[in-house]
Design brief:
The protein is an alpha/beta fold. The protein has five domains: 2-66 and 675-705, no CATH class; 69-166 and 620-671, Rossmann fold (3-Layer(aba) Sandwich), CATH 3.40.50; 177-275, Immunoglobulins (Immunoglobulin-like); 278-443 and 450-527, Class I glutamine amidotransferase (GATase) domain (Rossmann fold, 3-Layer(aba) Sandwich); 535-607, Immunoglobulin-like, CATH 2.60.40. The protein contains twelve helices and 39 strands. Strand 27 and strand 28 form a beta hairpin. Helix 1 (16-36) packs antiparallel against helix 2, helix 2 packs antiparallel against helix 12 (686-705) and helix 6 (333-339) runs parallel beside helix 7 (360-371).
């Protein structure tokens, strides 16, 4: 918009200081005449004043200006707390109404920006304002209007501009909210022990919160445990860690009448169960070349406490030889296999032959130990087919295979161990370095090409055995069992039908993955969650639910039933993946506990709030923004609870005037402009100034001459 503005201006011929000096000298020269009231003194003063005015060069200046409209900024909060209930509709209606009103005001441009949900840092309202202000000249900024619930987490200590800042909030003041806040929750817990959670239930917006509230604690989908806890005081919850892997704990407080939302009435905590240092008992029979292999692998694990015995002196040698002449002591049978048997997490028999060393009662104790949840690893050689074989003892009841009998059961000759078809789906042997791709170990069809050879070294001895239980995850080239894994009662048994795995540790014929294989066997025996062959796991990461089901059974992927935290149930087909897996990937935006089942197993996943700061306080509250609004002359207003928001009147105000009043808010009028043209007209040009000065001097002379 163009406009012309006229005004008086001076363009001095001489510097200002020189004009002032001439004025002072003139006054000094005229002072005596004025003091004596001489004739013509007034005309002298007039002549001198005209001379100074002519030297000041007064002009009538007319400017042509191009005015620029002011810019108002409307910031709309679109975070999770601003979308609760009817808040989103109220804010949207207020936005449309403000834009319509601003369009009717002259010389005003209203720009609208949004503050979206941003990570886990709460509401970043002023970050959105700063980004918008980067494109707005400060001389044209009329003010900022924020449509928000007041839960802003980047409020600056001082306003960034002097423009008025107004806050419009949905609803009415005085809202209340109940929340469960976790003060401390350990991320890990030792299996077999308990951990403590520290929580507090708080009522926000209540003048004097007192009384007790019912708290519900649910672990891994079990029946909830009800507790009564005082409001506003710390409460401790004891959670037993009964297994390895994640334990999901859901804590929920009963709703408060009239509260804004129940969204933050519950919290979900995930505690990963880990085992303490594992105690392993390794019993070696007669010395052999591979004995050190087992010891080195177990000693290399810092989480393993190893007790190792090599039996060289059977009980019948307990004679009257003086102790100072004995190189070895008697084997502590009773202490190990009766008194402290259940202190061990894993028992390993390495080429052990029972030549009367362990009485049947102790071997029966070991079998009962396995059935009760213990772990047993048996590595056998030629001694397994003899009369002292463990298969002929009470321990044979928990072994998955028995020797065929006779010396023919011991097969001497080079061969390369293979991963069986079921072993390609079992976590102990799936993906072993050097193994051929899955399917290569399957039985060859007559007339077809032989399966590919594994890329690891050869062994030279194995045993023929009658497999009666378990799964043979590794086999010989003629498909005989080589490594058998079995579950017995609550415990587990692994059996290696060859004593030549030590060749891999020496690098013979290229070596092999002995360390990885033995580590996986030991950890599977000790029930590590990541090595479960029949398992269903679920986790929530990045707002998505990731489900994985693992099974050694062949067949199509199962259908998963997913129960969301709000109780809604959906069914989804699984997607086949390598290694006997079926996977599912879904959005999981609701915070809480997600439950997944494949019809046989059930898994739970904890979904924490994507933006914890955002739901920490769900009340609409102006406490955080009021000081900033008052510092800039702005105000805070409530939109009410009706369908139509109660909006204040929108006005334009001059710079320095109040920008907020009863029922109205103001946007500053800056009058910013660009000068496009200037026309100057001298009021006392030289051709006029000279006659005027000379004329007044002549009049002064004539007056004095009378």
């Amino acid at each position: 918009m163009r406009q012309a503005i006229a005004g008086l201006d001076f363009a001095p011929v001489l510097p200002l200081w020189l004009l002032l000096a001439l004025g002072v000298l003139g006054l000094l020269a005229l002072a005596p005449a004025l003091w004596r009231r001489a004739r013509g003194a007034a005309w002298r003063v007039a002549a001198f004043a005209l001379l100074l005015l002519a030297l000041a060069n007064p002009r009538l200046v007319e400017e042509t200006r191009e005015t620029r409209p002011d810019i108002g900024l409307l910031v709309v909060d679109q975070t999770a707390s601003a979308r609760l209930g009817s808040r989103a509709a109220q804010i949207e209606a207020a936005r449309a109404a403000l834009e319509a009103r601003a369009a009717r005001l002259p010389e005003l441009e209203l720009r609208t920006v949004t503050a979206p949900e941003g990570g886990n840092q709460g509401t970043r309202l002023f970050a959105a304002i700063q980004r918008a202000l980067a494109d707005i000249p400060r001389a044209r900024l009329a003010g900022v209007i924020a449509l928000t619930d007041g839960q802003v987490h980047d409020v600056p200590a001082q306003p960034a501009t002097d423009a008025p800042f107004h806050v419009l909030l949905p609803g009415r003041p005085g809202e209340t909210d109940r929340r469960v806040r976790v003060i401390e929750a350990p991320g890990f817990g030792i299996v077999g022990r308990s951990v403590e959670l520290r929580v507090v239930v708080e009522d926000l917006g209540v003048a004097d919160p007192t009384g007790a509230v019912r708290l519900s604690v649910r672990r891994d989908g079990q029946a909830p445990r009800q507790q009564s806890v005082p409001i506003g005081r710390e409460h401790r919850i004891t959670v037993p860690i009964e297994r390895g892997g994640p334990t999901v704990v859901e804590i929920a407080a009963e709703p408060r009448p009239g509260e804004v939302s129940e969204l933050n009435n519950r919290q979900v905590v995930t505690i990963n169960g880990v085992r303490d240092r594992l105690r392993v008992l390794l019993i070696s029979g007669e010395p052999h070349a591979g004995e050190r292999t087992w010891r080195r692998i177990l000693k290399a694990d810092p989480n393993v406490d190893l007790v190792h015995f090599t039996i060289l002196r059977p009980p019948e040698k307990d004679d009257l030889t003086p102790l100072n002449e004995l190189a070895l002591i008697a084997f502590p049978v009773r202490e190990l296999f009766q008194q402290k048997l259940r202190d061990f997490d894993l028992i390993v028999f390495d080429r052990f032959a029972n030549r009367g060393i362990l009485p049947p009662i102790y071997l029966r104790n070991i079998a009962d130990y396995v059935r009760g949840g213990g772990a047993l690893l048996v590595n056998v050689g030629p001694e397994f087919v003899g009369p002292a074989s463990l298969a002929a003892t009470p321990l044979g009841q928990v072994l998955p295979a028995r020797p065929l009998g006779g010396s023919a059961s011991v097969v001497e000759g080079p061969f390369r161990p293979r991963v069986s078809e079921v072993g390609n789906r079992h976590p102990v042997t799936e993906g072993l370095p050097g193994a051929p791709p899955p399917g290569g170990a399957a039985a060859a069809v007559p007339g077809s090409a032989p399966p590919p050879e594994p890329a690891w070294g050869r062994w030279y001895r194995h045993l023929l055995a009658d497999q009666r239980a378990g799964m043979a995850v590794m086999e010989t080239p003629d498909r005989g069992p080589l490594l058998i894994l079995d579950r017995v009662g609550e415990g587990r048994v692994a059996m290696m039908l060859s004593d030549h795995i030590w060749l891999w540790s020496r690098g013979h014929d290229g070596g092999g993955p002995h360390q990885e294989l033995l580590r996986r066997i030991a950890h599977w025996l000790m029930k590590e969650p990541e090595l479960e062959e029949e398992d269903l796991t679920a986790r929530v990461e990045g707002g998505r639910l990731h489900v994985q089901r693992r099974s050694v059974e062949a067949g199509p992927p199962p259908e998963f039933t997913v129960t969301a935290p709000d109780g809604s149930v959906t069914r989804h087909p699984g997607v086949a993946a390598p290694g006997g897996r079926a996977v599912l990937d879904l959005p999981a935006e609701q915070p809480g506990v997600w439950q997944v089942t494949d019809g046989r197993r059930t898994a739970f996943a904890a979904a924490a709030a994507a933006n914890p700061l955002e739901i920490a306080d769900l009340r609409a509250d102006d406490a955080r923004l009021r000081p900033l609004a008052e510092a800039t002359g702005g105000g805070t207003r409530w939109l009410g609870n009706g369908a139509e928001p109660v909006l204040p009147e929108l006005r334009r105000v001059a710079v320095g005037r109040d920008a907020s009043g009863s029922g109205w808010i103001g946007l500053r009028r800056n009058n910013d402009h660009t000068v496009t043209g200037i026309a100057a007209l001298p009021l006392l040009p030289p051709w006029l100034a000279l006659p005027l000065v000379l004329g007044t001097l002549v009049l002064a002379w004539r007056r004095e001459g009378r």
